[in-house]
Amino acid sequence: MKKIIMTGGGTAGHVTPNIALMPALKEAGYDISYIGSYNGMEKGLIEAQGITYYGISSGKLRRYFDWKNFSDPFKVLKGYFQAIHLIRKIKPNIVFSKGGFVSVPVVLAAKFCKVPAIIHESDITPGLANRLAIPRAKKVCCNFPETMKYLPENKAVLTGSPIRSELFGGDSQKAIEYCHFTNTDKPILLIVGGSSGSKVINESVRKVLPELLEKFNVIHLCGKGNLDPSLDGLVGYAQFEYANKELTDMFAAADLVISRAGANSICELLALRKPNILIPLSAAASRGDQILNAQSFKRQGFSVVIEEESLNDKLLLETVNSTFANREQYINSMESSGQIDSIGAIISLIEETAK
After folding, report:
1. Which long-range contacts (CB under 8 A, 24 or more apart) does 315-322 make?
2. CATH of the domain spanning 166-335, picked from 1.10.10.10, 3.40.50.2000, 3.40.50.170, 3.10.310.10
3. Residue list for the binding site for UDP-N-acetyl-alpha-D-glucosamine
4. Residues annotated within a binding site
């Protein structure tokens, strides 16, 4: 049986595309092992898939001063030797990395052990972890045409982002019942602020909630600890810290989505053909990757973009109304996108590259 080691962690964006690939890898005859950090959020997600999980030491490479910058390189070095040991033990035909700092020692160890590695970069510009790993990889998959110029020409492959098949099997009626919506004639507005929520989006939405509820039923995923008890029981409004299995049903029900602009999230919106308003994380709070992602989708006619610094209740309400009124325009653009069969493209690349 062919063997593959998958790696990636730190955020859901470094894990869910790997999970999306797993059914196709199994169908292609691969035995899958996963290397992540000891107690990272990826551990639970992967173990829930019934995949053998190995934890290694992991450090973070920061662009700012932190005392941990002096100790973390030793953690990375330890993780490198642990990864070498695991690769020699498992004897994989190939390594597939979705990025995050835990993936760096794994890709470097694969090169040392003469095992080919493929990296997937979600954002328009490669993150620091992937920039360190790319020289040791055979191929680098990417989501956006704009990313190709940042990658070595002989390694770059435009594949798009693998999307979980279950995302397409949502039941809108289940979401309506779960949210206790009584007026089913109203369209549904879904607000997704990211895994930890967004204070600025939550506040703006709640300021214009009475106006929004005149036209929409509203599903608000506001992040852990961000529920507003005073809004409990408000007709047409359903707030949750997060959604797990229910999210696919919520996507199926949604007529319009407000979202952050993480690469995997917006690729899911494209795949589902959901009209959307993107509010990317500001450059002050990130390396600016979400802003670039959002600008790309805006250029392609898939999304409307509000910069976080410009967000206010009046602008949000006007943008929701205008985007919903023109929703067919955005749906048509997404349907004409010529979206790649990402899973098929990546599986073919893995088959071609595996030793």
Report:
1. 316/204, 316/205, 316/208, 317/208, 317/211, 317/212, 319/277, 320/189, 320/212, 320/216, 320/256, 320/258, 320/277, 321/215
2. 3.40.50.2000
3. 11-13, 164, 195, 290
4. 11-13, 164, 195, 290
